[in-house]
Amino acid sequence: MTSSDSAQQSAGTPAKAPAKDPWDLPDVSGLVVGVLGGTGPQGKGLAYRLALAGQKVIIGSRAAERAQAAAGELGHGVEGADNAETARRSDIVIVAVPWEGHGKTLESLREELAGKLVVDCVNPLGFDKKGAYALKPEEGSAAEQAAALLPDSRVAAAFHHLSAVLLQDPEIDRIDTDVMVLGEERADVEIVQALAGRIAGMRGVFAGRLRNAHQVESLVANLISVNRRYKAHAGLRVTDV
Ligand SMILES: NC(=O)c1ccc[n+]([C@@H]2O[C@H](COP(=O)([O-])OP(=O)(O)OC[C@H]3O[C@@H](n4cnc5c(N)ncnc54)[C@H](OP(=O)(O)O)[C@@H]3O)[C@@H](O)[C@H]2O)c1
């Protein structure tokens, strides 16, 4: 205790609680993770990495058989089910469907997703002869569209900047990147940070509220330009944290 603390206490003013360590994250190893659209490269890659880390993972699809086939290819205890069952059975649900199917998919699963932590990784992008460019969703971002469509869920956003090629490559042990995590509730953000941190090489970093998700989603257009010029699978590091 410092002399100013003891002076405060003797004056009857309670000492200020120490600031919470931002890297003191919860244990999420017992949570079930579902992946909507988990038969695509991004969903499959995330499912593979999380399962490899020991997480229970269920891959979702519009067709249960497709999900079961993809889960069978991945092994490591991954299961497959249709998107609705995946949502129902999971604690954390990652949304990995294309932007074109995002609104409709979430709207149809509102009931199954109630009370769940929904993690959106969808990047609304367009492509033309100049390359990739960011679309401007009416709600501001894919994540804010999810929050608007799912009033009974806890919505966060993360995993936008990952390379599905690296995620799926069994020859690669570590994915050298930070994951920007956005959300409204600190406890939910910390769960997602902890989940990202389960994957070797990855670190989850708080990057703001959902109203700032558009920039994070849009940055993928820049990363695609980087990847095309340098024939790379670029990741991101936030320095000095
Ligand atoms: N690929 C990457 O490197 C990467 C990286 C970061 C973030 N992301 C984001 O992750 C999401 C998935 O990317 P992806 O490359 O894996 O996409 P994808 O292969 O085009 O789609 C993923 C899965 O979504 C389902 N799907 C397709 N159209 C749909 C629709 N209209 N409605 C509902 N479900 C539909 C399909 O599964 P079923 O037919 O089995 O239902 C498909 O296998 C995208 O929003 C992307 O922006 C991708």
Beta strand %: 15-25%
Globular, elongated, flat, extended or rod-shaped: what is the shape?
A: globular
Overall pLDDT, averaged? Answer: 95
- How do the strands of the widest beta sheet line up side by side? 3-2-1-4-5-8-9-10
Question: What structural category characterises the helix and strand content?
Answer: alpha/beta
What portion of residues is helical?
25-40%
Rg result? 19 Å
Describe the biggest sheet?
Answer: 8 strands, mixed
Gap between N and C termini: 27 Å
Task: Report the order of strands and helices.
Answer: HEHEHEHEHHEEEHEHEHEH
Total strands: 10
Unreliable residue stretches: 1-9
What topology does this entry show?
Elements: H1 3-10, E1 32-36, H2 41-52, E2 56-61, H3 64-74, E3 79-82, H4 83-89, E4 92-95, H5 99-108, H6 110-113, E5 117-120, E6 125-128, E7 131-134, H7 142-149, E8 154-157, H8 164-168, E9 177-183, H9 186-197, E10 202-206, H10 213-230
Parallel strand pairs: 1-2, 1-4, 2-3, 4-5, 5-8, 9-10
Antiparallel strand pairs: 6-7, 8-9
The structure holds NADP nicotinamide-adenine-dinucleotide phosphate (NAP).
